[in-house]
Design brief:
Layout (H helix, E strand, L loop, with lengths): L2 H6 L7 H22 L5 H6 L6 H27 L6 H23 L6 H7 L2 H34 L6 E4 L2 E4 H52 L3 H10 L19 H10 L4 H17 L2 H7 L5 H35 L12 H8 L5 H14 L3 H17 L5 H25 L6 H25 L6 H22 L10 H16 L17
Helix pairs in contact: 2-8, 2-15, 4-7, 4-8, 4-12, 4-13, 4-15, 5-11, 5-13, 6-7, 7-8, 7-14, 7-15, 7-16, 7-17, 7-18, 8-13, 8-15, 8-17, 11-18, 11-20, 12-16, 16-17, 18-19, 18-20, 19-20
Length: about 525
Protein backbone atom coordinates (compact mmCIF):
# COMPACT_ATOMS: atom_id res chain seq x y z
CA UNK A 1 0.00 0.00 0.00
CA UNK A 2 1.44 3.35 -1.00
CA UNK A 3 2.28 5.98 1.56
CA UNK A 4 -0.32 8.40 0.21
CA UNK A 5 -3.10 5.83 0.36
CA UNK A 6 -2.11 4.87 3.91
CA UNK A 7 -1.99 8.47 5.04
CA UNK A 8 -5.43 9.14 3.59
CA UNK A 9 -6.86 6.51 5.96
CA UNK A 10 -6.29 8.86 8.87
CA UNK A 11 -9.72 10.38 8.39
CA UNK A 12 -11.47 7.09 7.73
CA UNK A 13 -12.63 6.54 11.31
CA UNK A 14 -14.33 3.39 12.51
CA UNK A 15 -16.45 1.32 10.18
CA UNK A 16 -19.66 -0.45 11.06
CA UNK A 17 -17.77 -3.73 11.41
CA UNK A 18 -15.40 -2.12 13.92
CA UNK A 19 -18.29 -0.81 15.96
CA UNK A 20 -19.94 -4.23 15.84
CA UNK A 21 -16.77 -5.98 17.06
CA UNK A 22 -16.32 -3.57 19.98
CA UNK A 23 -20.01 -3.75 20.85
CA UNK A 24 -19.91 -7.55 20.81
CA UNK A 25 -16.82 -7.64 23.07
CA UNK A 26 -18.26 -5.19 25.60
CA UNK A 27 -21.64 -6.88 25.43
CA UNK A 28 -20.02 -10.25 26.15
CA UNK A 29 -18.25 -8.73 29.14
CA UNK A 30 -21.50 -7.53 30.69
CA UNK A 31 -23.30 -10.78 29.90
CA UNK A 32 -20.52 -12.73 31.64
CA UNK A 33 -20.70 -10.34 34.59
CA UNK A 34 -24.47 -10.78 34.82
CA UNK A 35 -24.46 -14.57 34.82
CA UNK A 36 -21.45 -14.93 37.12
CA UNK A 37 -22.46 -12.35 39.70
CA UNK A 38 -26.25 -12.27 39.75
CA UNK A 39 -26.51 -14.11 43.09
CA UNK A 40 -24.18 -12.06 45.29
CA UNK A 41 -25.37 -12.42 48.90
CA UNK A 42 -22.44 -11.54 51.16
CA UNK A 43 -18.76 -10.59 51.17
CA UNK A 44 -17.72 -14.25 50.84
CA UNK A 45 -19.44 -14.19 47.43
CA UNK A 46 -18.32 -10.69 46.58
CA UNK A 47 -14.61 -10.99 47.45
CA UNK A 48 -13.56 -14.67 47.08
CA UNK A 49 -16.48 -16.22 45.12
CA UNK A 50 -16.77 -18.83 47.89
CA UNK A 51 -13.57 -20.31 46.41
CA UNK A 52 -15.51 -21.85 43.53
CA UNK A 53 -13.55 -20.60 40.48
CA UNK A 54 -11.81 -23.21 38.22
CA UNK A 55 -8.00 -22.95 38.31
CA UNK A 56 -7.67 -22.36 34.56
CA UNK A 57 -10.10 -19.40 34.74
CA UNK A 58 -8.21 -17.93 37.70
CA UNK A 59 -4.97 -18.34 35.71
CA UNK A 60 -6.28 -16.50 32.64
CA UNK A 61 -7.81 -13.76 34.78
CA UNK A 62 -4.49 -13.33 36.58
CA UNK A 63 -2.77 -12.85 33.20
CA UNK A 64 -5.36 -10.29 32.07
CA UNK A 65 -4.75 -8.24 35.20
CA UNK A 66 -0.98 -8.68 35.02
CA UNK A 67 -0.56 -7.49 31.44
CA UNK A 68 -3.46 -5.03 31.20
CA UNK A 69 -3.23 -1.94 29.01
CA UNK A 70 0.40 -1.35 29.95
CA UNK A 71 1.28 -4.40 27.87
CA UNK A 72 -1.07 -3.65 24.98
CA UNK A 73 -0.03 0.00 24.67
CA UNK A 74 3.33 0.26 26.45
CA UNK A 75 5.15 -2.91 25.39
CA UNK A 76 4.81 -2.35 21.60
CA UNK A 77 6.12 1.18 22.06
CA UNK A 78 9.12 -0.26 23.95
CA UNK A 79 9.82 -2.72 21.13
CA UNK A 80 9.39 0.09 18.58
CA UNK A 81 11.75 2.63 20.11
CA UNK A 82 14.10 0.39 22.12
CA UNK A 83 14.66 -3.39 21.90
CA UNK A 84 13.71 -6.75 23.42
CA UNK A 85 15.56 -6.30 26.71
CA UNK A 86 12.23 -5.95 28.49
CA UNK A 87 12.02 -9.78 28.34
CA UNK A 88 14.89 -9.96 30.82
CA UNK A 89 12.37 -8.98 33.48
CA UNK A 90 10.41 -12.15 32.80
CA UNK A 91 13.25 -14.37 34.06
CA UNK A 92 13.01 -12.93 37.55
CA UNK A 93 9.22 -12.77 37.32
CA UNK A 94 8.95 -16.51 36.60
CA UNK A 95 11.25 -17.35 39.53
CA UNK A 96 9.12 -15.15 41.81
CA UNK A 97 5.93 -17.00 40.84
CA UNK A 98 7.47 -20.34 41.70
CA UNK A 99 8.57 -19.11 45.13
CA UNK A 100 5.15 -17.56 45.80
CA UNK A 101 3.40 -20.79 44.84
CA UNK A 102 5.28 -22.79 47.46
CA UNK A 103 5.92 -20.19 50.20
CA UNK A 104 3.12 -17.62 50.15
CA UNK A 105 0.05 -19.51 48.92
CA UNK A 106 0.23 -22.29 51.55
CA UNK A 107 0.32 -19.66 54.30
CA UNK A 108 -2.66 -17.74 52.91
CA UNK A 109 -4.77 -20.89 52.63
CA UNK A 110 -3.66 -22.00 56.09
CA UNK A 111 -5.15 -18.86 57.61
CA UNK A 112 -8.17 -18.92 55.26
CA UNK A 113 -7.81 -15.21 54.50
CA UNK A 114 -10.14 -12.98 52.50
CA UNK A 115 -7.36 -10.43 51.99
CA UNK A 116 -3.71 -11.33 52.32
CA UNK A 117 -3.17 -8.55 54.89
CA UNK A 118 -5.17 -10.60 57.37
CA UNK A 119 -2.08 -12.83 57.53
CA UNK A 120 -0.12 -9.86 58.90
CA UNK A 121 -2.68 -9.49 61.68
CA UNK A 122 -2.44 -13.17 62.62
CA UNK A 123 1.36 -13.10 62.46
CA UNK A 124 2.17 -9.71 64.00
CA UNK A 125 -0.86 -7.67 65.01
CA UNK A 126 -3.44 -5.14 63.88
CA UNK A 127 -1.04 -2.23 63.30
CA UNK A 128 0.98 -4.26 60.80
CA UNK A 129 -2.20 -5.30 58.99
CA UNK A 130 -3.40 -1.71 58.72
CA UNK A 131 0.00 -0.56 57.46
CA UNK A 132 0.19 -3.35 54.89
CA UNK A 133 -3.25 -2.47 53.60
CA UNK A 134 -2.41 1.25 53.51
CA UNK A 135 0.73 0.59 51.50
CA UNK A 136 -1.36 -1.54 49.14
CA UNK A 137 -3.77 1.36 48.61
CA UNK A 138 -0.93 3.72 47.72
CA UNK A 139 0.88 1.26 45.45
CA UNK A 140 -2.20 -0.06 43.68
CA UNK A 141 -3.88 3.31 43.18
CA UNK A 142 -0.74 4.83 41.69
CA UNK A 143 0.16 1.85 39.48
CA UNK A 144 -3.44 1.32 38.35
CA UNK A 145 -3.77 5.01 37.60
CA UNK A 146 -0.89 4.58 35.16
CA UNK A 147 -2.58 1.53 33.64
CA UNK A 148 -5.90 3.31 33.23
CA UNK A 149 -4.21 6.29 31.60
CA UNK A 150 -2.40 3.98 29.15
CA UNK A 151 -5.64 2.30 28.12
CA UNK A 152 -7.62 5.51 27.74
CA UNK A 153 -4.78 7.11 25.79
CA UNK A 154 -4.95 4.24 23.30
CA UNK A 155 -8.73 4.46 23.00
CA UNK A 156 -8.66 8.25 22.56
CA UNK A 157 -6.12 7.95 19.72
CA UNK A 158 -7.96 5.13 17.93
CA UNK A 159 -11.31 6.92 18.14
CA UNK A 160 -9.79 10.27 17.20
CA UNK A 161 -10.81 11.79 20.52
CA UNK A 162 -7.25 13.02 21.09
CA UNK A 163 -8.00 15.65 18.42
CA UNK A 164 -10.66 17.17 20.64
CA UNK A 165 -10.08 20.44 22.43
CA UNK A 166 -7.13 20.65 24.82
CA UNK A 167 -7.16 23.04 27.73
CA UNK A 168 -4.05 24.66 29.12
CA UNK A 169 -4.35 24.76 32.91
CA UNK A 170 -1.27 26.52 34.27
CA UNK A 171 1.02 24.67 31.88
CA UNK A 172 -0.80 21.33 32.22
CA UNK A 173 -2.42 20.32 28.92
CA UNK A 174 -5.69 18.47 29.54
CA UNK A 175 -7.27 16.80 26.52
CA UNK A 176 -11.07 16.62 26.58
CA UNK A 177 -11.03 13.40 24.56
CA UNK A 178 -8.87 11.68 27.16
CA UNK A 179 -11.23 12.92 29.86
CA UNK A 180 -14.18 11.45 27.97
CA UNK A 181 -12.46 8.07 27.68
CA UNK A 182 -11.64 8.11 31.40
CA UNK A 183 -15.23 8.93 32.30
CA UNK A 184 -16.63 6.21 30.03
CA UNK A 185 -14.43 3.37 31.24
CA UNK A 186 -14.59 4.38 34.87
CA UNK A 187 -18.37 4.21 34.69
CA UNK A 188 -18.28 0.79 32.96
CA UNK A 189 -15.83 -0.59 35.55
CA UNK A 190 -17.93 0.63 38.45
CA UNK A 191 -21.15 -0.81 37.04
CA UNK A 192 -20.03 -4.35 36.26
CA UNK A 193 -17.70 -4.80 39.26
CA UNK A 194 -20.14 -3.29 41.76
CA UNK A 195 -22.77 -5.70 40.48
CA UNK A 196 -20.82 -8.92 39.99
CA UNK A 197 -17.91 -8.65 42.44
CA UNK A 198 -14.86 -10.89 42.08
CA UNK A 199 -16.74 -13.54 40.09
CA UNK A 200 -17.46 -10.99 37.38
CA UNK A 201 -13.85 -9.79 37.49
CA UNK A 202 -12.35 -13.30 37.21
CA UNK A 203 -14.58 -14.64 34.44
CA UNK A 204 -14.36 -11.48 32.34
CA UNK A 205 -10.59 -11.49 32.88
CA UNK A 206 -10.34 -14.90 31.24
CA UNK A 207 -12.34 -13.55 28.30
CA UNK A 208 -10.07 -10.50 28.08
CA UNK A 209 -6.91 -12.63 27.86
CA UNK A 210 -8.39 -14.51 24.91
CA UNK A 211 -9.14 -11.25 23.12
CA UNK A 212 -5.61 -9.96 23.84
CA UNK A 213 -4.11 -12.97 22.06
CA UNK A 214 -6.52 -12.69 19.11
CA UNK A 215 -5.91 -8.95 18.61
CA UNK A 216 -2.12 -9.19 18.91
CA UNK A 217 -1.91 -12.17 16.57
CA UNK A 218 -4.12 -10.52 13.95
CA UNK A 219 -2.04 -7.31 13.92
CA UNK A 220 1.22 -9.30 13.73
CA UNK A 221 -0.04 -11.22 10.68
CA UNK A 222 -1.18 -8.02 8.98
CA UNK A 223 2.15 -6.28 9.62
CA UNK A 224 4.22 -9.21 8.38
CA UNK A 225 2.21 -9.45 5.16
CA UNK A 226 2.74 -5.73 4.48
CA UNK A 227 6.44 -5.40 5.31
CA UNK A 228 7.56 -7.19 2.12
CA UNK A 229 10.82 -8.50 3.52
CA UNK A 230 11.92 -12.06 4.04
CA UNK A 231 12.80 -13.14 7.57
CA UNK A 232 16.55 -12.72 7.07
CA UNK A 233 16.31 -9.23 5.63
CA UNK A 234 13.82 -8.13 8.28
CA UNK A 235 16.10 -9.40 11.03
CA UNK A 236 19.09 -7.59 9.53
CA UNK A 237 17.28 -4.25 9.32
CA UNK A 238 16.01 -4.52 12.89
CA UNK A 239 19.38 -5.74 14.15
CA UNK A 240 21.30 -2.91 12.50
CA UNK A 241 18.98 -0.46 14.27
CA UNK A 242 19.55 -2.14 17.65
CA UNK A 243 15.97 -3.38 17.90
CA UNK A 244 16.82 -7.08 18.41
CA UNK A 245 19.03 -6.73 21.47
CA UNK A 246 17.76 -9.24 24.03
CA UNK A 247 20.39 -9.38 26.78
CA UNK A 248 22.29 -6.50 28.33
CA UNK A 249 25.02 -8.10 30.41
CA UNK A 250 26.72 -4.78 31.15
CA UNK A 251 29.94 -5.97 29.46
CA UNK A 252 30.12 -2.67 27.55
CA UNK A 253 30.84 -0.91 30.85
CA UNK A 254 34.05 -2.90 31.35
CA UNK A 255 35.81 -1.92 28.13
CA UNK A 256 39.63 -1.80 28.10
CA UNK A 257 40.86 1.23 29.96
CA UNK A 258 37.80 1.37 32.24
CA UNK A 259 38.33 0.75 35.94
CA UNK A 260 36.37 -2.03 37.60
CA UNK A 261 34.80 0.46 39.99
CA UNK A 262 33.54 2.67 37.14
CA UNK A 263 32.21 -0.42 35.41
CA UNK A 264 30.24 -1.55 38.46
CA UNK A 265 28.88 1.96 39.02
CA UNK A 266 27.62 2.15 35.44
CA UNK A 267 26.19 -1.36 35.64
CA UNK A 268 24.21 -0.48 38.77
CA UNK A 269 23.10 2.79 37.16
CA UNK A 270 21.56 1.01 34.17
CA UNK A 271 18.19 -0.54 35.12
CA UNK A 272 18.18 -2.66 31.96
CA UNK A 273 21.23 -4.81 32.59
CA UNK A 274 20.48 -8.52 32.88
CA UNK A 275 21.44 -8.56 36.56
CA UNK A 276 19.44 -5.48 37.53
CA UNK A 277 16.42 -6.46 35.43
CA UNK A 278 16.30 -10.06 36.68
CA UNK A 279 16.80 -9.18 40.34
CA UNK A 280 14.34 -6.29 40.11
CA UNK A 281 11.73 -8.48 38.41
CA UNK A 282 12.18 -11.16 41.05
CA UNK A 283 11.49 -8.71 43.88
CA UNK A 284 8.75 -6.89 41.93
CA UNK A 285 7.20 -10.27 41.16
CA UNK A 286 7.24 -11.25 44.83
CA UNK A 287 5.69 -7.90 45.69
CA UNK A 288 3.03 -7.67 42.98
CA UNK A 289 2.07 -11.34 42.78
CA UNK A 290 2.52 -12.29 46.43
CA UNK A 291 1.83 -9.20 48.56
CA UNK A 292 -0.63 -7.27 46.39
CA UNK A 293 -4.32 -8.06 46.90
CA UNK A 294 -5.12 -7.13 43.29
CA UNK A 295 -3.48 -10.24 41.81
CA UNK A 296 -3.48 -12.59 44.78
CA UNK A 297 -7.24 -12.14 45.14
CA UNK A 298 -7.73 -14.16 41.95
CA UNK A 299 -5.68 -17.03 43.35
CA UNK A 300 -7.80 -17.06 46.52
CA UNK A 301 -11.00 -17.74 44.55
CA UNK A 302 -10.12 -21.39 43.81
CA UNK A 303 -11.07 -24.24 46.09
CA UNK A 304 -7.73 -25.59 47.32
CA UNK A 305 -4.14 -24.61 47.90
CA UNK A 306 -2.98 -27.00 45.20
CA UNK A 307 -5.36 -25.53 42.62
CA UNK A 308 -4.10 -22.05 43.49
CA UNK A 309 -0.49 -23.17 43.01
CA UNK A 310 -1.31 -24.71 39.63
CA UNK A 311 -3.05 -21.53 38.53
CA UNK A 312 -0.04 -19.37 39.43
CA UNK A 313 2.51 -21.65 37.76
CA UNK A 314 0.26 -21.72 34.70
CA UNK A 315 0.51 -17.95 34.36
CA UNK A 316 4.16 -18.36 33.35
CA UNK A 317 3.10 -20.39 30.31
CA UNK A 318 0.33 -17.94 29.44
CA UNK A 319 1.97 -14.55 30.09
CA UNK A 320 5.34 -15.15 28.40
CA UNK A 321 3.96 -15.72 24.87
CA UNK A 322 1.59 -12.77 25.29
CA UNK A 323 4.37 -10.36 26.28
CA UNK A 324 6.58 -11.73 23.50
CA UNK A 325 3.79 -11.21 20.99
CA UNK A 326 3.34 -7.55 21.87
CA UNK A 327 7.10 -6.89 21.93
CA UNK A 328 7.19 -8.43 18.46
CA UNK A 329 4.51 -5.99 17.37
CA UNK A 330 6.85 -3.16 18.32
CA UNK A 331 9.64 -4.56 16.15
CA UNK A 332 7.25 -5.14 13.25
CA UNK A 333 5.97 -1.58 13.59
CA UNK A 334 9.55 -0.32 13.42
CA UNK A 335 10.11 -2.30 10.21
CA UNK A 336 6.85 -1.08 8.72
CA UNK A 337 7.60 2.59 9.29
CA UNK A 338 11.20 2.02 8.16
CA UNK A 339 9.77 0.95 4.81
CA UNK A 340 7.37 3.90 4.76
CA UNK A 341 9.53 6.82 5.93
CA UNK A 342 7.13 9.50 4.67
CA UNK A 343 4.29 8.33 6.88
CA UNK A 344 3.63 10.58 9.87
CA UNK A 345 4.58 9.28 13.31
CA UNK A 346 2.76 10.15 16.55
CA UNK A 347 4.05 12.97 18.71
CA UNK A 348 4.38 10.52 21.61
CA UNK A 349 6.00 7.08 21.03
CA UNK A 350 3.58 5.62 23.59
CA UNK A 351 0.89 6.12 20.94
CA UNK A 352 2.62 4.10 18.18
CA UNK A 353 0.27 1.10 18.19
CA UNK A 354 -2.84 3.25 18.54
CA UNK A 355 -1.56 5.56 15.78
CA UNK A 356 -0.95 2.58 13.48
CA UNK A 357 -4.38 1.16 14.21
CA UNK A 358 -6.23 4.35 13.34
CA UNK A 359 -4.15 5.29 10.28
CA UNK A 360 -3.38 1.94 8.68
CA UNK A 361 -5.37 -1.07 9.86
CA UNK A 362 -8.43 -2.02 7.81
CA UNK A 363 -11.96 -2.17 9.15
CA UNK A 364 -12.51 -5.19 11.35
CA UNK A 365 -8.94 -5.44 12.60
CA UNK A 366 -9.21 -1.90 13.85
CA UNK A 367 -12.26 -2.88 15.87
CA UNK A 368 -10.55 -5.99 17.26
CA UNK A 369 -7.61 -3.98 18.62
CA UNK A 370 -9.95 -1.34 19.99
CA UNK A 371 -11.93 -4.10 21.72
CA UNK A 372 -8.74 -5.37 23.37
CA UNK A 373 -7.84 -1.89 24.61
CA UNK A 374 -11.40 -1.24 25.80
CA UNK A 375 -11.46 -4.50 27.76
CA UNK A 376 -8.06 -3.65 29.25
CA UNK A 377 -9.49 -0.27 30.25
CA UNK A 378 -12.44 -1.81 32.03
CA UNK A 379 -10.35 -4.41 33.90
CA UNK A 380 -9.50 -2.61 37.11
CA UNK A 381 -8.45 -3.13 40.74
CA UNK A 382 -11.72 -1.88 42.20
CA UNK A 383 -12.69 -5.25 43.68
CA UNK A 384 -9.35 -5.73 45.43
CA UNK A 385 -9.27 -2.15 46.72
CA UNK A 386 -12.79 -2.49 48.08
CA UNK A 387 -12.09 -5.90 49.63
CA UNK A 388 -9.02 -4.59 51.44
CA UNK A 389 -10.85 -1.47 52.62
CA UNK A 390 -13.83 -3.40 54.01
CA UNK A 391 -11.91 -6.38 55.45
CA UNK A 392 -8.78 -4.66 56.71
CA UNK A 393 -10.05 -1.19 57.63
CA UNK A 394 -13.83 -0.79 57.80
CA UNK A 395 -14.84 -4.02 59.51
CA UNK A 396 -12.22 -4.01 62.32
CA UNK A 397 -11.96 -0.23 62.87
CA UNK A 398 -15.25 1.43 61.93
CA UNK A 399 -18.12 -1.08 62.17
CA UNK A 400 -17.28 -4.41 63.81
CA UNK A 401 -20.63 -6.15 64.20
CA UNK A 402 -22.74 -5.09 61.23
CA UNK A 403 -24.72 -7.47 59.04
CA UNK A 404 -23.33 -9.03 55.87
CA UNK A 405 -25.92 -7.01 53.95
CA UNK A 406 -24.37 -3.83 55.36
CA UNK A 407 -20.81 -4.91 54.48
CA UNK A 408 -21.91 -5.80 50.94
CA UNK A 409 -23.43 -2.33 50.58
CA UNK A 410 -20.25 -0.68 51.85
CA UNK A 411 -18.21 -2.82 49.45
CA UNK A 412 -20.18 -1.53 46.49
CA UNK A 413 -19.88 2.06 47.74
CA UNK A 414 -16.12 1.51 48.02
CA UNK A 415 -15.98 0.45 44.38
CA UNK A 416 -17.64 3.72 43.35
CA UNK A 417 -15.29 5.81 45.47
CA UNK A 418 -12.11 4.07 44.33
CA UNK A 419 -13.27 4.23 40.71
CA UNK A 420 -13.57 8.01 40.85
CA UNK A 421 -10.21 8.34 42.60
CA UNK A 422 -8.51 6.17 39.95
CA UNK A 423 -9.89 8.36 37.16
CA UNK A 424 -8.48 11.48 38.84
CA UNK A 425 -5.05 9.89 39.21
CA UNK A 426 -5.06 8.68 35.58
CA UNK A 427 -5.81 12.21 34.41
CA UNK A 428 -2.89 13.52 36.48
CA UNK A 429 -0.56 11.01 34.76
CA UNK A 430 -1.48 12.38 31.35
CA UNK A 431 1.29 14.97 31.74
CA UNK A 432 3.94 12.22 31.82
CA UNK A 433 5.64 9.99 29.22
CA UNK A 434 7.31 6.60 29.41
CA UNK A 435 4.26 4.97 30.97
CA UNK A 436 5.68 1.44 30.93
CA UNK A 437 8.61 2.30 33.22
CA UNK A 438 6.57 4.72 35.32
CA UNK A 439 4.43 1.84 36.58
CA UNK A 440 7.53 -0.03 37.74
CA UNK A 441 8.97 3.06 39.47
CA UNK A 442 5.75 3.48 41.45
CA UNK A 443 5.92 -0.11 42.67
CA UNK A 444 9.63 0.20 43.45
CA UNK A 445 9.12 2.89 46.09
CA UNK A 446 6.41 1.30 48.25
CA UNK A 447 6.54 -2.35 47.22
CA UNK A 448 9.73 -3.15 49.10
CA UNK A 449 8.15 -2.11 52.40
CA UNK A 450 5.27 -4.55 52.04
CA UNK A 451 7.38 -7.39 50.68
CA UNK A 452 9.98 -7.02 53.43
CA UNK A 453 7.35 -7.42 56.15
CA UNK A 454 5.68 -10.41 54.48
CA UNK A 455 9.05 -12.15 54.17
CA UNK A 456 9.85 -11.31 57.79
CA UNK A 457 6.64 -13.04 58.82
CA UNK A 458 7.15 -16.09 56.61
CA UNK A 459 10.83 -16.94 57.00
CA UNK A 460 11.54 -15.83 60.59
CA UNK A 461 9.96 -16.16 64.02
CA UNK A 462 10.56 -12.56 65.04
CA UNK A 463 7.64 -10.75 66.65
CA UNK A 464 6.81 -7.10 66.27
CA UNK A 465 3.92 -4.81 65.46
CA UNK A 466 4.53 -1.07 65.76
CA UNK A 467 8.18 -1.92 65.06
CA UNK A 468 7.10 -3.23 61.65
CA UNK A 469 5.28 0.02 60.89
CA UNK A 470 8.48 1.94 61.65
CA UNK A 471 10.44 -0.37 59.35
CA UNK A 472 7.95 0.04 56.48
CA UNK A 473 7.74 3.83 56.72
CA UNK A 474 11.50 4.29 57.03
CA UNK A 475 12.15 2.03 54.07
CA UNK A 476 9.62 3.84 51.86
CA UNK A 477 11.15 7.20 52.81
CA UNK A 478 14.64 5.99 51.89
CA UNK A 479 13.62 4.49 48.54
CA UNK A 480 11.56 7.56 47.61
CA UNK A 481 14.56 9.75 48.40
CA UNK A 482 16.86 7.55 46.33
CA UNK A 483 14.44 7.67 43.38
CA UNK A 484 14.23 11.46 43.57
CA UNK A 485 18.02 11.81 43.76
CA UNK A 486 18.38 9.43 40.81
CA UNK A 487 15.79 11.27 38.69
CA UNK A 488 17.57 14.57 39.44
CA UNK A 489 20.89 12.97 38.35
CA UNK A 490 22.42 13.70 41.74
CA UNK A 491 23.31 10.01 42.21
CA UNK A 492 23.79 7.19 39.73
CA UNK A 493 21.44 4.40 40.69
CA UNK A 494 19.13 2.50 38.37
CA UNK A 495 15.52 2.64 39.60
CA UNK A 496 15.27 -1.14 39.25
CA UNK A 497 17.45 -1.56 42.37
CA UNK A 498 15.06 0.42 44.57
CA UNK A 499 12.68 -2.42 45.39
CA UNK A 500 15.68 -4.60 46.26
CA UNK A 501 16.99 -1.93 48.62
CA UNK A 502 13.52 -1.35 50.10
CA UNK A 503 12.86 -5.03 50.74
CA UNK A 504 16.21 -5.66 52.40
CA UNK A 505 16.00 -2.46 54.45
CA UNK A 506 12.49 -3.27 55.71
CA UNK A 507 13.46 -6.83 56.56
CA UNK A 508 16.63 -5.78 58.42
CA UNK A 509 14.97 -2.97 60.40
CA UNK A 510 11.95 -5.13 61.24
CA UNK A 511 14.20 -7.98 62.36
CA UNK A 512 16.42 -5.68 64.44
CA UNK A 513 13.50 -3.97 66.19
CA UNK A 514 11.47 -7.14 66.63
CA UNK A 515 11.51 -9.57 69.53
CA UNK A 516 12.51 -13.24 69.42
CA UNK A 517 9.73 -15.81 69.72
CA UNK A 518 9.80 -19.54 70.15
CA UNK A 519 7.21 -20.00 67.44
CA UNK A 520 4.76 -18.11 65.27
CA UNK A 521 1.18 -17.90 66.50
CA UNK A 522 -1.03 -20.80 65.61
CA UNK A 523 -3.41 -20.56 62.71
CA UNK A 524 -7.15 -20.29 63.27
CA UNK A 525 -8.90 -23.58 63.85
CA UNK A 526 -9.69 -24.34 60.24
CA UNK A 527 -8.61 -27.32 58.26
CA UNK A 528 -5.98 -26.43 55.70
CA UNK A 529 -7.13 -27.05 52.14
CA UNK A 530 -4.86 -29.23 50.10
Amino acid sequence: MGDLVVAEKMAAGLGLLDVAVVAAAVGALFIIAWFSGREEKDTADFFVARRSIPAVIACLSFVATEVSAVTIIGVPSTGFKENWQYLQFFLGSAAARILIAFLFIPVFFKFNVTTIYEFLRHRFGAATQYSGSAFFFVTRLMASGVRLYAACLGVAVILGWDAWRTWDLYGWHVNSGLMAALALFTMCSIVFIAFGGIKAVVWTGAFETTVFFLAGGAVAIYLWKNIHLDAGAAWQVASDAGRTSLLNTGAQYFAPGTSCWDGFVKTFSDPNTLWAATLNAFFVGLCVFGTDQELMQRLLTVKTRRSSQKALIGTILAAFPLVTLYLGLGTLLFLYYHQHPTLPLPDNPDKILSHFVVTVLPTGLKGLVLAAVVLASIDSPLSSLSSSFVTDIYRPLIRKDASERHYLWVSRCGIVGFGILLAILALAFSALTGILWLAFKVIAVTGGSTLGIFLLGMVTKRRGNTENVIAMVDSAAVTASLLLLSELKIISLGWSWLIVVGTILTFVIGYALGRPAAESPAAPSQKEAS
